[in-house]
Amino acid sequence: MALPLPPALSDTIVALSTPPGAGAIAMLRLSGPEAIAMADAVFAGKKLQDQPSHTLHFGTIRDGARILDEVVVSLFKGPHSYTREDVVEISCHGSDYIVEQILTLLTRRGARLAEAGEFTKRAFLHGAFDLAQAEAVADLIAADSALSHQVALQQMRGGFSQELRDLRGRLVQFAALLELELDFGEEDVEFADRTGLVKLLTEVQTLVRRLLRSFELGNVIKNGVTTVIAGRPNAGKSTLLNALLNEERAIVSAVAGTTRDLIEDEVSIEGIRFRFVDTAGLRDTADVVESIGVERTKKRVTQAALLIYLFDITSTTPTELEAEIEALNPGRSIPVLAVGNKLDVASDPEIEAFRHQPDVLLIAAARGDGLDELREALLLRVRGEGLDRTGQSTIVTNLRHARSLELTNQALDAVLLGIEAGTGTELLAADLRQALAALGEITGEISSDDLLTSIFTQFCIGK
């Protein structure tokens, strides 16, 4: 006898899966036990129930005798579908009116309007993939660079999940031995070799910490790098912005103080999205408007992930450069790249003064000299240590995953300290359970309804 479906999976849902608004084509998706029957009731063409899965069918959608539209219906019979349920996708003309009429017709037939992310949630609940892979679906939809697309695709296909399952599987073996010791507590039997456990925990913790370190890069890949270009007036900040963007985005003038406000734009460098911010030149000024721009520059620097301090080689000494960077960015709390501009007009002594200065790059923004080296230096500032430039290494991009990995790391620390201090098996087992629970939350092996609701409501309605 088949077990009844959970209430969340026993009805049939429908939603528009293409962006709202008029367009050439719109696609509505039905999923659930009555999806095919509901579609058959309104579709004039071949009887869908009798057709094989993964087939397309042309016909019309009718409300009684009234034809609403000519459509193409895609048929996917469970469990060979995205949700593992029967799924019907109706491709109609992209008129808001037509979409509304078809949705109304299907809801009258008993379909329920889907909640945000409900199709992917059903796929997860049916075991199509784990929670980390489900979240990667949302990341893939939001990907706006080659690298963010690559990382999301790798995670959706299970690369990250497999690594976590391997880690968790190794810990489960020893956790089982500790639990066995508890069952024989009165006989003082030690099943889990403590030396072997320390070795295993150390290896697992090394991998967990590597994943945690990768989050810094993962966050950059997902959200981009806000990079402020700051410096004195006429250092060439606007010229540099235009050169990096390869377009005339900012006004360039020999008159000092031309830039009064922040100018921002984005560019992708080897798959990493940089948001460059051109700022007002830093100087004391009696001009009210320019002084407001200077204050905005200082405030924007504090919000930056990376600072390019641009200076004119022909009018700056190494001592002045260091003092200016320190005044703007005390203690270099924000990663900074000092870039000397106007290499094309500087004298040999002026160039030599900076040639061997550490962390100083020399360019000629107006001519494009040194820009490739600048792009490479920017990438080096944001890439994590030891991470594969092609994005093939596992990279953590999700804050929830990073927090769970941090909890795992803390629990493993507690187990290792407990072993060193000779702590009893009961406390060791409790700490190891916490590590396993934290890892399990990432993939959804351990989850709550609140957690699932929080995750899937971030998806778009039709996914």
TrEMBL record:
Single Gene Ontology BP annotation: tRNA methylation
Gene3D superfamilies assigned: P-loop containing nucleotide triphosphate hydrolases, Probable tRNA modification gtpase trme, domain 1, tRNA modification GTPase MnmE domain 2
Keywords, sorted A to Z: Cytoplasm, GTP-binding, Hydrolase, Magnesium, Metal-binding, Nucleotide-binding, Potassium, tRNA processing
Annotated residues for binding of K(+): 234, 253, 255, 258
EC number: 3.6.-.-
Keyword Thylakoid: no
Main subcellular location: cytoplasm
Binding residue positions for GTP: 234-239, 253-259, 278-281
Major enzyme class: hydrolase
Pfam families, sorted: MMR_HSR1, MnmE_helical, TrmE_N
Binding, Mg(2+): 238, 259
InterPro entries found in the cross-reference section: G_TrmE (IPR031168), GTP-bd (IPR006073), GTP-bd_TrmE_N (IPR018948), GTPase_MnmE (IPR004520), MnmE_dom2 (IPR027368), MnmE_helical (IPR025867), P-loop_NTPase (IPR027417), Small_GTP-bd (IPR005225)
Cofactor: K(+)
Cofactor note: Binds 1 potassium ion per subunit.
Domain (TrmE-type G) ranges: 224-383
Localization (cell): Cytoplasm
Superkingdom to which the source organism belongs: Bacteria
GO MF assignments: GTP binding; GTPase activity; identical protein binding; metal ion binding
Cellular-component GO terms for this entry: cytosol
Subunit (UniProt): Homodimer. Heterotetramer of two MnmE and two MnmG subunits.
Function: Exhibits a very high intrinsic GTPase hydrolysis rate. Involved in the addition of a carboxymethylaminomethyl (cmnm) group at the wobble position (U34) of certain tRNAs, forming tRNA-cmnm(5)s(2)U34.
Membership in a protein family: Belongs to the TRAFAC class TrmE-Era-EngA-EngB-Septin-like GTPase superfamily. TrmE GTPase family.
Protein name: tRNA modification GTPase MnmE
Organism the protein comes from: Hymenobacter chitinivorans DSM 11115
Encoding gene, per UniProt annotation: mnmE
